[in-house]
User: Which sequence fits this backbone?
C-alpha cells in the first residue's frame, strides 16, 4: 500500500487530525499538498536504492550525489550489480568513487548477501515491516534507521515510525513542548493514536522542521 495515494492521504490526514490535536495543527499549517510536492515518486529497484543508502550515509545530499555519480560512471552509467561489486578491487573502487573504506565493506556485504541468497530482494515487497527490517539489518552497514527509511520512502509502507530519527524527535519536542528529546519508548507511546498512518505523521513532523530526508 502506498503511503501517499490521493484520496486515501486525505482520509489519513483527517484521522491524524482527529486522533491528535497537536499534530492536527501542524497538518493544517503545513498542508497535505506540500507533503505531496516533497514526495514525488522516486522509486527505483531495491538493490539500487540500498546502494544509494550506503553511499549517502553521513555525508551531505550534494556529496552523496557526487559519489554515486562517480560510482555509476565506473560501471557504464548505472549502479554496479552485486557480482560487479565483488569482482572489483576494493581499493580501486574506493579511490574511483571517493568512498570510505567502511562503505566499500558495506557495499560488498550487501552484494554478498544478495549473491548468496541471504537477502532475497524480490521477496521484500511480500514481507511485513518487521521482517523487512530483520532482513536489512543483517547486512553490515544497514541499521534500523536505514531500514525505516527504506520502508517509508522506497516500499512506501504507511505505518512506520522512525523512532531513532533525530529530526522526528526534535519535531515532537518542539510541537509538544517537551523539556527534552523523547526516548524511543516515549515516542512510540505518544504516536500510538497515529496508527495506521504513522508514516504520514512522520512526514509532517519532518516538514515542520523543513528537514525532509533526501
Assistant:
Amino acid at each position: 500500500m502506498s503511503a501517499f495515494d490521493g484520496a486515501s492521504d486525505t482520509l489519513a490526514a483527517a484521522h491524524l487530525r482527529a486522533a491528535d490535536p497537536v499534530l492536527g495543527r501542524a497538518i493544517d499549517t503545513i498542508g497535505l499538498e506540500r507533503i505531496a510536492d516533497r514526495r514525488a515518486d522516486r522509486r527505483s529497484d531495491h538493490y539500487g536504492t540500498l546502494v544509494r543508502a550506503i553511499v549517502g550515509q553521513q555525508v551531505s545530499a550534494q556529496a552523496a550525489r557526487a559519489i554515486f555519480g562517480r560510482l555509476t560512471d565506473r560501471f557504464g552509467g548505472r549502479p554496479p550489480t552485486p557480482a560487479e561489486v565483488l569482482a572489483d578491487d576494493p581499493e580501486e573502487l574506493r579511490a574511483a568513487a571517493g568512498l570510505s573504506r567502511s562503505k566499500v565493506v558495506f557495499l560488498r556485504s550487501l552484494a554478498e548477501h544478495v549473491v548468496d541468497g541471504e537477502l532475497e530482494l524480490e521477496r521484500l515487497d511480500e514481507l511485513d515491516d518487521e521482517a523487512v527490517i530483520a532482513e536489512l539489518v543483517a547486512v553490515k552497514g544497514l541499521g534500523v534507521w536505514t531500514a525505516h527509511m527504506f520502508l517509508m520512502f522506497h516500499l512506501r509502507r504507511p505505518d512506520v515510525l522512525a523512532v531513532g530519527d533525530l529530526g522526528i524527535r526534535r519535531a515532537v519536542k518542539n510541537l509538544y513542548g517537551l523539556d527534552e528529546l523523547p526516548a524511543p519508548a516515549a515516542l512510540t507511546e505518544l504516536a500510538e493514536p497515529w496508527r495506521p498512518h504513522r508514516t504520514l505523521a512522520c512526514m509532517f513532523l519532518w516538514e515542520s522542521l523543513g528537514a525532509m530526508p533526501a
User: Anything to note?
Assistant: DSSP finds 13 helices and no strands in the chain. The chain has a mean pLDDT of 92. Residues 145 and 165 are 7 Å apart (CA to CA).
